[in-house]
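Field reference: "sequence" (input) and "structure" (output). Example, AARP2CN domain-containing protein:
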Amino acid sequence: MKLQPHKAYRTRQSGSSAFGFTSSVKAKRSQMRATEKEQRRLHIPTIDRSYGEPPPYVVVVQEPPRHKVPEVRGPVTVVSGKKRQLQFLDCPNDINGMIDCAKIADLALLLIDASHGFEMETFEFLNLMQNHGLPMFMGVLTHLDKFKCTKTDICNLTKFISVKKFPSLHWRTCRPYVVVDRFEDVTPPERVHMNNKCDRNITIYGYLRGCNLKKGTKSCNLHGMLVSMTALKFSWGTGLADPCPLPSAAKKKGLRDKEKLFYAPMSGLGDLLYDKDADKEANILSSSLLPGKAQDVGEMLVKLFQNTKYSIDEKFEKSFISVFGRKPNISSDATNNAKIWMMIQIILMTSSIKLRK
């Protein structure tokens, strides 16, 4: 081969046949390896049995003992994006609560004290999750402020949670189950007065997950308050509006139509809800009335007027003026109205004092 000064000197041959396999065994092994890699990418398609908008993903926070947060009670639903809702749940350290959390968790956050190390509860919860299909989990190190500055760790954690894709387990999609947000006792008071240990009737509220409830079903898996309540008979069920809906692009008609990003009825964070019998329920302990935040006078007045049971005309019809000196029996409604007006006067007095200052 002669040297060509106008071309780069090429030590290797060019062409497709120059780089082929010289051994048939080596070519067969390479083909088998490429086929196996292609087959690993294939997965069986899962059938989505949910109806309508999907329920929020359940994020279970498992922490070691001596690190409980007493203010948070029950599930906390948060809108994390335009098309995603997350429901945070605190996992207790007893075995029954851990089993229930391992059954319903889409993502488990394992809090590990960096100053102490791994504890036995973390390994127990990992073993329980492995027995129930092993949902996705993440390890979160706490108490790192003793070692380094953690300004961006929380931002990174929220980013990881928001971009995670949660795989659906087959045995969950085939069974309906409800994570109870709140419950009410609707047992008639006469029956409870006659027998304190009688069978109670309760109404539960929560997101239905898995498949739909079929007509004539006599039992359903209900996981509420982190206590297993399996094989309960229920009489009927109805669909309600989402108390924490996803943000929509529709034009808002009023100030009350603002987007609700948090919903925690057991912790006192929620809005007015109406059930089938048009019974109104108001949570007075809203975010504006929590300790450490400024209380708006107008909002407190509106909430006081919302608690009134009768209209103004009905109150005038039931009210009376005593001409004689005898003190008539004052009803409970009258005392409640007097208390409300007294609280309004106190609020107005305090607001005027603040304005003068």
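The chain has nine helices and twelve strands.
Residues 223-230, 272-293, 353-357 have pLDDT under 50 and may be disordered.
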